[in-house]
Specification:
single chain; alpha+beta; 17 helices; globular; 29% strand; 6-stranded mixed β-barrel; 37% helix
């Protein structure tokens, strides 16, 4: 997304997290006391001769006929370039189509005409948020709610930020508030359902998704199938205490760092020995189809497709429930999982074959440490102790956000002046940059000529993948030089990430550190143990 000044703008992550919490607590109080305002701030107070066309465009959008809605709004804008309702309407349509540049442009046009239009500031904030510029988005949301404390879109976007930053309860409150302000907007229900799920309120999550299916356009068949699968899955989980943790309060689990730079750990699934990859790039625990059959894990629900790297970027979603999982002296019962085919297994040497992946849904119940130097994973479920507020001089503490799928996203800088959001992924062998980021950041001249790679991912196999030369990859004060990154299409990943992800920090980056993930504080601590790391 190219917005004047946006690439160079930077707001402290810590200040942003504090500001959004304070401002929205105040805004909720203001909203309760404020008189009712329409969903479109600055509503038309006099009869508008274009009212018929506005109704037609809104109807087209509710039916998922987005191109028809765009044409109707475009005709109105062509007749009057200062038509505020048409700019606001078309901006929301572009947001639905994931074209956030166009959404931002039209919202900004309204702000140029009327700087006090709350709806326009909310739409601009939403576009910035979804494009990955979370800190800057907060400024627009603050402006929106300051102008109109009942602007539903601002609360809906703020609920997403709460969710990304680990505040599920606050996300639930704000998403429900947004939905009450505008019960015709289905996106608020998605955030409400996700927050309910993270709070393990599965019945509420299923109810929210069912309401979503009732009011959302019927045209997105794949998304509706995916959500129906989630509803069926959540109904199966009602009354079950998932991820019930027992055993020792802390445990050390050795791992083998494979030739593919992924950590392989021995564990037990339903009492049977298994080898899994420790995968911080997976929100869920995953079993191969063959392993699920061997361990007696059967399908309990299915529906739609999930997103991943490789092949066409998608694979069928099948849900299962592991009865017991044991990692060292730590034990978990009732562990939800995905069941899917594993690609390229026969091509892998025996030492880098796995039965599954341990994802963040399990690791989030512990203070998790991956020590690549000593090849050990340390788990401590006394998470209330957390990490010391002050890191030692050789440690770097980095705040993170989570995507809608629960993945860890960290602000990363490339070659000194390009900021992106990158997924922390111990299950990936290599660092990856999205095709869109390479184009947006004008890095095509850094593609390594004559070199390609074969990538085996969750969604299949991709051949002839280009490689990008990165002079410097920097996370907070830590930097690595002269890296090679795979260039892959993130389109499928970003369909459900919530805010744009442009990279993956894989094993080639992480192996130089002791990585400690503190989910209670939403922060990662990196302690380097090899010489290539520079602390600046």
């Amino acid at each position: 997304m190219k917005v004047k000044g946006i690439e160079s703008a930077h707001v402290s992550f810590r200040i942003t997290r504090f500001a959004i919490a304070i401002f929205l607590a105040f805004a909720l109080a203001m909203s309760a006391a404020a008189p009712h305002a329409s969903a479109e701030s600055g509503e038309r107070k006099e009869k508008d001769p274009n009212e018929k066309f506005y109704r037609q465009a809104k109807k087209a959008m509710r039916e998922g006929k987005y191109e028809k809605a765009i044409n109707l709004y475009t005709d109105l804008i062509n007749k009057d370039a200062r038509n505020i309702p048409a700019h606001l309407g078309i901006a929301l349509v572009y947001a639905k189509l994931l074209n956030f540049q166009r959404c931002y442009d039209h919202a900004n046009k309204v702000i140029e005409i009327d700087a006090n239009n709350a709806r326009a500031h909310a739409l601009a904030g939403l576009a910035l948020l979804r494009s990955g510029f979370v800190a800057i988005a907060v400024e627009r949301l603050v402006q929106s709610v300051t102008i109109n404390p009942k602007e539903a879109l601002a609360f809906g976007a703020a609920a997403e930020i709460d969710y990304y930053e680990g505040r599920a309860r606050e996300a639930h409150v704000k998403a429900l508030h947004a939905y009450n302000l505008d019960p015709d907007e289905p996106d608020f229900l998605v955030t409400l359902a996700r927050a309910s799920s993270r709070l393990e309120r599965f019945s509420d999550a299923a109810d929210a998704y069912e309401q979503f299916l009732r009011i959302a356009p019927k045209t997105d068949h794949e998304r509706r199938e995916r959500i129906q699968g989630l509803i069926d899955f959540y109904r199966q989980l009602v009354g079950i205490e998932v991820h019930e943790v027992g055993g020792a309060s802390s445990t050390n689990v050795p791992f083998d760092l494979g030739a593919d730079r992924r950590p392989y750990v021995k564990l037990k699934v339903n009492g049977r020995d298994a080898t899994f990859v420790i995968d911080t790039g997976s929100g869920f625990t995953v079993l191969s189809k063959e392993s699920a059959k061997r361990f007696g894990v059967s399908e309990i629900a299915r529906g739609g497709k999930s997103q991943g790297v490789g092949g066409d970027g998608k694979f069928s979603i099948i849900y299962g429930l592991v009865k017991s999982l044991q990692l060292g002296e730590a034990k978990l019962r009732s562990v939800p999982c995905f069941i899917r085919p594993f690609h390229g297994t026969k091509e892998r040497p025996g030492e880098i074959r796995s039965d599954g992946f341990i994802g963040l849904s399990v690791l989030a119940h512990f203070l998790t440490e991956l020590d690549y130097k000593d090849s050990v994973m340390r788990l401590n479920r006394q998470t209330e102790k957390s990490l010391p507020l002050q890191a030692s001089v050789d440690e770097t503490v980095i705040p993170f956000r989570t995507t809608q799928n629960g993945l860890i996203s960290i602000e990363t800088e490339l070659d000194g002046n390009h900021r992106i959001n990158a997924i922390l992924d111990s299950g990936a062998s290599s660092t990856v940059i999205s095709t869109a980021a390479v184009e947006r950041l004008k890095m095509r001249d850094q593609i390594i000529k004559g070199q390609t790679a074969r990538v085996i991912g969750a969604a299949g196999i991709s051949d002839n993948v280009e490689l990008l030369f990165i002079r410097n990859c920097r996370v907070a004060g830590l930097s690595q030089n002269n890296m090679r990154a795979l260039v892959l299409d993130f389109g499928a990943i970003n369909e459900t990430s919530g805010f744009e992800q442009s990279g993956i920090l894989g094993g080639d980056f992480l192996r130089h550190y002791r990585v400690t993930i503190d989910f209670s504080r939403a922060q990662v601590t990196l302690k380097p143990h090899t010489s290539p790391i520079q602390d600046k």
